[in-house]
Structure of DUF3048 domain-containing protein:
Amino acid sequence: MKKKLFRMLTGLILSCSLAGSSTVMAQEADSSDTVKSYLTGEDVPASIGRRRPVAVMLGNDRNGAPQSGLTNAGVIYEAPVEGQITRLMGIFEDYDNLEKIGSVRSCRDYYIFYANEFNAIYTHYGQAAYALPYLEQHAIDNLNGLTMGSTAFFRTTDRQAPHNAYTTPQLLQNGIDAMGYSQEYKSDYTGHYLFAEDGTETTLDNGTAANVVKLDNYGDNHPWFEYNADTKEYSRFQFGEAHIDELNGQQLTCDNIILQYSAYKPYDSNGYLNVDVMTPGQGKFITRGKAIDIRWEKDSPWGITHYYDANDQEIRLNPGRTWVAIIQNDKVDSISYQ
């Protein structure tokens, strides 16, 4: 009887030990699982790559730059707003370790459509009047500083308002929780871009040289990109100097540049723009020091923009950060390549 009891206890202890080991192994496996990022095409932890990103509106005039946190953005949009200036929108999936993100500025209606292409939670501080109907109709999950205040944002003392509004990873989480937004992608979302297959790269062998790309169509910051053949990245400049991330002093870089030529018209005499996000247009795809002509189209206003080469094949980006520049179609001639 004692031997039988001993064997039962031994078996129970062994079973518990194996179960505990299995749990530890499962936890280790979960923490080491990687997926292809929808934003960059790179291998990232599943906890990052399958969490809905946040799309943060950022000031980009002389008072709003340099921004904080942009080196962590997987995709950056730049588009004109009123007064010759541009606004940036950083799309972030990996932001947990950032001290702050900002400065956060107000919404323009066309940015809502760009953010929605990534199933992102759109983060902004206020809005132009023309964007208000979309926000009031909850056309996109969004965190608005005017209504959420200190729940999701804070102000610094080193800059004057409105250029001093920022958010943090914890404040973003507070805002998402307060609004009850899901942090999982929609079940039918399968990503935005196509990327080069593992072990290959997109070289645009038949493209034209694009070692320096100057976007003088943007009349305030006059940005440009310079290609580094050693790193295979483009370095970003504006206002006559390197465009840096204020948090770490690093110059912003990207692996891909997409120029999206778009129709537009003024909304009013104040210069607010109605940028056409739906009517198909032309553009450029730039990577690895070369540029090719592309066309873009989307099947619905809330759908994803697809970019095609001269052979009607959807372009494949190189893994890494992508910079999308929205170019007013009557200012295309202001862009130069060297």
In short: The first helix runs from residue 2 to 32. Residues 257 and 323 are 5 Å apart (CA to CA). Residues 1-31 have pLDDT under 50 and may be disordered.
